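Sanity check

After download, print the first record. It should look like this:
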Amino acid sequence: MAGLSSCRPIFHSEADFQHALAWHIHETQPECDLRLEREQFLPGAQERMATDIWIRVSDAAVAIELKYTNRALQEECNGEVFSLRDHGAQPPRQYDFIKDVQRLEQALRLPNPADYGFAVFLTNNSTYWTPPRQSNIIDADFRIHDGHHIGGGVLRWSTHTGEGTKRNREEAIVLANLYKLQWRNYSVFGNEPGRRFRYLAVRVPPNYKRLR
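Expected structure tokens:
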């Protein structure tokens, strides 16, 4: 991510982010076998999982899931204009990211699994990495702010969560591992809100070892 930020500090979309990261990996690790949207069946279900980026180099494989969500921003970078729209509500996107972590834990149990997984969340919306001001929040189990821990059991919406917020996301998420979340700087375009990009990278290990 540090190498990518020097040449691509901003992206038009999640697909743009995915392609740029994959191309950067290809350029810096030309010997690796790299696939986009690699499909496998999840264990115990007839559901396919399409991994955003799958890398195999030597005897190791890595599965990567990406999220790119924004607050509105108009920016020109290297002669190219970027017009980012506001992606709105925070709780559903946190849920989707943690769901990626769960899917990676499941994927590492598949035949011919990856050796590790990474779930990466890139945003210019500081509310994701900032702790909440209130304690009685609907998404307490799904918070991803800096220094927070997620996992080690079942994660659910609060009982007072509105139906609209959790539509198509009603199921609880179960994470076998415990993860400490650490945000890192990605790029900066100024001091105003929305002009700093940061990312969260969660490393999913094999064999469900508990992280420190």
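If your output differs, re-run the checksum step. Summary of this record's structure: The chain has one domain: 2-208.
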